[in-house]
Amino acid sequence: MYGELSEKLVEWIRNKVEEAGTKGCVLGISGGVDSAVVAALCSKAVPGKVLGLHMPCYSLPQDTADARLIAETFEIMYAEVNLEKAYDSMLKTLTELRATQGMQEFETKHLIAQESEKLAASNVKPRLRMITLYYFAKLYNFLVVGTGNKSELEVGYFTKYGDGGVDILPLGGLVKSQVWELAKHLGVPDTIIRKPPTAGLWTGQTDEGELGFTYRQLDQVLLTGSGDPGVVKEVNRLRAINEHKLKMPAIPDIQLNCPNR
Q1: Which SS3 state, helix, strand or coil, does residue 115 take?
Q2: Are 227 and 217 in contact, with CB atoms under 8 Å apart?
Q3: Which of 84, 121, 129, 174 is 20 to 30 A away from residue 55, measured at CA?
C-alpha cells in the first residue's frame, strides 16, 4: 500500500517540477517527520536537485542534529540559515513602533490578549522561513515544497504566508497517522518518527499540546467523522474559523458597467 503511494507521490512531485518549468525542489527541514518524508520523496523525484534548509530561530539543538540526519539519510544538499538576528531585528522594529504615542493610544482601545501577543511574535519565525525558501527558489529556479499534512490543513494548524506559503504540498492529502506509516516505508530514522511533533514556535511547544488533542484523535474525526464529542466539536470550530487560510484572498463580486467609448 505505502510502496504504491510513495511511487505516486514521487511521480506527482516530478510532474509538478516539470509543469512549472523549474529544475528542482527546495524545502525547509525542521527535524520532524513531515519534512523528513518530503525530503525522501523529493530526493527520489529529482535526485541531486534538492536543497534542504534548516532555519533555526532559538530552536533546540536536537532539531538541528535531526535535520542533519535527515539530509544525510536521503542524500540531499543541506544548509543552515540562522534567522535569530533577522527575528530580533524585526521584533525590535515592531516593538519600537508600538511604543510610540499614537500606537499606545490605539492599543488602549484595542486590548491585546497575552496569548495573541505571543502568537504574533512567534508567527514571525515561519514567515521569515518562507522568505528564505523563496529567495533560494528564485536563485535556482526551484519549487518551494511544503511539508504540511491533511490533519494540519483541515484545522488550519499552520501560519498563513508562513509554512503555508509554498508551491506544492505532497502530504496535503494524508493525515498525520498515514504520514507516520509512509515514513516507516521510506526509511526515515525511527528517532525522527517517534519525536513529538512541534512547530518550534517556543520552548516546550508541541503540536498536540497546542491543539488540545492528539493527532490520533484528530485523524479519527477526519477519516470517520466520529470520535470524542469534545474533539469533534473543537475540530469543527477550528475548521470554521480557519477556513480562510485555505482560500485565495476574498474579492467582492462587483461588476461595473463601463460606458462605450
Answers
A1: helix
A2: yes
A3: 174
